[in-house]
From TrEMBL:
The gene is deoC. GO terms for biological process: carbohydrate catabolic process; deoxyribonucleotide catabolic process. This is Deoxyribose-phosphate aldolase. Keywords: Lyase, Schiff base. GO terms for molecular function: deoxyribose-phosphate aldolase activity. GO terms for cellular component: cytoplasm.
Length: 299
């Protein structure tokens, strides 16, 4: 993989991005198309628990929910994946066995990204050796802010190699990048270094995912696809808590990248709380009235 001068990454038309996002948010989706979109969104969610208080019991409970989102509504899909710390990968693998739900693990000194490459590679290897299908890594955020783009590139490439057959999602932590130009630059670096997905956020700082930032990242994916023919996935994470917003993301993906990205192979939501609101909206479409929030489990 060859590197390039990332200070020359394309400049982003901020006014154009905001105008397009405004138009996406005004689209109306009704009836059958809405139900299809809601089930699609549900099947794109990575249910996540990444807390210091995580236990095997909590991980098992989350894995059960991923497979049985609501037993009273027939035809609901599973979520795409569950995401845990490397310590809990083996527990999650056993809990979702045979369901089609993927197991993702954060790695590389999540969420700060501050550690040696040796430890980051070991972290990744532990996750993969325990059966992780996917690895969510965070870039060396400090090195990016210093302008050490080649370091960031080399580290992503090394982690990608350590993943073996596991797919790599690269977290940019867009909420601290400051400008759309920097979001575009970080996206280009991650894509060029071999990311299978680019991901907005760790979920640990605000702002997390936003529609404008996600659109900038989708444009980077589109340009890479036009240049190479290779698809790269997208995962907005954090701050997406309601079904209406999720549908707006799906409209934006379809109109920017095309329908081939509308599957959980190429698009994910990192938003555990989103699942509950999507289920409530599906129940409304199914039964004709809104259910109490007690209708679904919190975890």
């Amino acid at each position: 993989m060859s590197q390039r001068d990332y200070t020359l990454s394309p400049r982003v038309d901020q006014v154009g991005i905001l105008d397009r996002v405004d138009r996406f948010t005004k689209r109306s989706i009704k009836k059958e198309a809405k139900m299809q979109g809601l089930k699609m969104a549900l099947n794109m969610i990575d249910l996540t628990t990444l807390e210091g208080a995580d236990t095997e019991g909590k991980v098992k409970q989350m894995c059960y929910k991923a497979q049985h989102l609501h037993d009273e509504i027939p035809g609901l899909p599973t979520t795409a994946a569950v995401c845990v710390y490397p310590t809990f990968v083996k527990t999650a693998v056993n809990a979702v066995k045979g369901s089609g739900v993927k197991v993702a693990s954060v790695a590389t000194a999540f969420p700060s990204g501050h550690s040696s490459r040796e430890i980051k590679l070991m972290d990744t290897k532990i996750a993969v050796d325990n059966g992780a299908d996917e690895v969510d890594m965070v870039i060396s955020r400090g090195r990016f802010h210093q302008g050490d783009y080649n370091f960031v590139f080399d580290e992503i490439a090394a982690i990608k190699e350590a993943c073996g057959k596991a797919r790599l999602k690269v977290i940019l932590e867009t909420g601290e990048l400051g400008t759309f130009d920097k979001v575009r630059r970080a996206s280009d670096i991650a894509i060029d270094a071999g990311a299978d997905f680019i991901k907005t956020s760790t979920g640990k700082i605000k702002p997390a995912a936003t529609l404008p930032v996600t659109l900038v990242m989708l444009e980077a994916i589109k340009d890479h696809y036009y240049a190479t023919g290779k698809m790269v996935g997208m995962k907005p994470a954090g701050g997406i808590s309601n079904a209406k917003l999720a549908l707006q993301y799906l409209v934006m993906v379809k109109e920017t990248l095309g329908g081939q990205w509308l599957s959980n192979e190429w698009f994910r939501f990192g938003a555990s709380s989103l699942a509950n609101d999507v289920i409530l909206q599906i129940a409304k479409q199914t039964h004709g009235n809104y259910q109490s929030k007690d209708y679904i489990s919190i975890d």
